[in-house]
Amino acid sequence: MTQARLQITSGYASLPGKRERNEDFVGMVLPGEPELSAKGILVAVADGVSGSSNGREASEYTVRGLLSDYYATPDDWDVPIALDRVLNAINRWLLAQSSAHPEQDGMATTLSALSLRRRHYTIAHIGDTRIYLFRQGKLTRLTTDHVWDRPEMRHVLTRAIGLDRQLNLDYIDGELEQGDRFLLVSDGVWQTLSDQTLAHRLQQGVDPNQTARELCDAAIDAGSTDNVSTAILEIAQIPDADLEDFREQIQSLRPPPRLGIGAIIDDYTVLEILHESRVTMLYKVRDEETGNTCVLKTLTPGLADDDIERAGLAHEEWLMRRVVARFFPQHVNVKPERRTYLYFLMTWHDGATLQQKLDADVHFTIPEVLQQAAKLTRGVGALHRRSILHRDIKPANIHLGGDLELRILDLGVAISGREPQDRAREHAGTPSFIAPEQYTGAKPSTQMDLYAIGVTLYHMLTRRYPYGEIEPFQRPKFGEPVPPTRFRPDIPHWLENLILKAVARDPEHRFETTDELLLAIERGAARPLAAPTAMPLGERDPATLWRAVAAVSVVINILLLYLWVVR
């Protein structure tokens, strides 16, 4: 079963009307996954400023540039930030064109853009194009016209893209409801047709394309002398619930009692107990309805009334739904009416974790480590692009399947920015794989995951740790990491330099992103990294440095006193 995703029906029309040239421009992007979940749907209507010979060029460039560049922004940017960065860049380009080419002076346009992402909408608006929301029979205008507030001056814009160096956009956001209809129109439509007419057409219309064309034709028939453009989007299905919705759904659910082999829960038969810890239980189960084998994860029965742990399991399931990629087990949907206990399901894969292989004394060759290093880095990168920090990368959480795929396990302590701040500040992870700055209370960062990747590679190759094994509740001191060639001389120097950079004590000396680490892995010996320089003692251990200085000072003073006495 696949999870529900955002689905819409849409249509648009743009006509010159009674003018020779159409200076409006309409554009829309309806992406598939993973862009649909990461960036959403984007539609925009622009109206080139009249009186400029380049109004059409301005509107078309703005819409095309927005639709193209928005999907190139990082996935961890919030929608308003991504829209703002792109539109400010477009504004600067239009101003530069007007400045450099006198024939393009006054190259400006209005813009109303609508983003639909998961269960939310975001609007970026400037000028006098409009966006309306038709919900439950009521039409609401969501945007404000940026024109002079005088009857005889209401055709004069006070804001537009390409008009001023300081771009002042309006941003509006809200929650989606199934059945919502969004209407984007240029002023050639709304100045001619009343809100009642717009609402009536939306109420009666079935096909968005046909309705959009009918609205444009109606505006022309009603006497519009301007270009006419319309775009309509109807929400046919909203995605599955977000984190808060999940928490509400599990409010009344409790984990099942401890299950033995052969036990049945919600028509899932337990085949094997895979793992049991203080907090969680993992079972291999068979879905008697489909015959599929899955992994069922739940809390231990003793945590049935622990609201924090129950919310944590809901958070992990929510994250599982977001990581639709080959580097992770996939979430398996359970019908709400079928689930009577607190748990979630994921796909089952034959194979073993890296830690299980190490415990079985499997020897990893250099080519094998490099192959898995690239896959692991890509997998962690897929998390980071979704604004998720894993925070517990280690061999026990990396699974090598019988299908030769690498999969990252256990998002139990992962964070995404949607959880309470106290959870983000938790000391998470396994001590020997925790970055040094985490011990001093630093905020979670992508570089902590990169550090854990480095320690994982080090451990695969040597079965040791760069700073020695760290026990729980220990307050370690980090000096210089031990070069892995001390334990395994066959490691090439370029790979040693790469690992030492990944596990550098100072985050500023590590790789900044998974892309940078992956590039270094792929380049290998062809373009090796320089050997890391030793950290000065004053930075590595300032207390020891000052103790040494004090000791030398005492010795010198004693020597001077001795010389003074013997004189």
What structural class do you assign from the helix and strand content?
alpha+beta
Beta-strand segment tally: 19
Strand arrangement across the biggest beta sheet: 11-12-13-14-16-15
What is the CATH third-level topology name of the largest domain? Phosphatase 2c, domain 1
**Corresponding CATH architecture of the largest domain:** 4-Layer Sandwich
Fraction in beta strands:
15-25%
Report, as a whole number of angstroms, the end-to-end distance. Answer: 95 Å
CATH superfamily of the largest domain: PPM-type phosphatase domain
What's the mean pLDDT score? 88
User: What is the class of the largest domain in the CATH system?
Assistant: Alpha Beta
Number of helices: 16
Broad shape: globular
What is the domain tally? 4
Helix share bin: 25-40%
The major pleated sheet works out as: 6 strands, antiparallel
Task: Please tag this protein with its features.
single chain; 567 residues; alpha+beta; Phosphatase 2c, domain 1; Transferase(Phosphotransferase), domain 1; 4 domains; six-stranded antiparallel sheet; 19 strands; 20% strand
Write the layout of secondary structure elements.
Elements: E1 7-15, E2 24-29, H1 35-38, E3 41-48, H2 55-70, H3 79-100, E4 109-117, E5 120-126, E6 130-135, E7 138-141, E8 170-175, E9 181-185, H4 187-190, H5 195-204, H6 208-221, E10 228-237, H7 243-249, E11 264-265, E12 268-276, E13 280-287, E14 293-299, H8 307-322, E15 331-332, E16 344-347, E17 351-353, H9 354-359, H10 366-385, E18 398-401, E19 406-408, H11 421-424, H12 446-462, H13 493-502, H14 514-523, H15 537-540, H16 542-566
Antiparallel strand pairs: 1-10, 2-3, 3-4, 4-5, 5-8, 6-7, 6-9, 9-10, 11-12, 12-13, 13-14, 14-16, 15-16, 17-18, 18-19
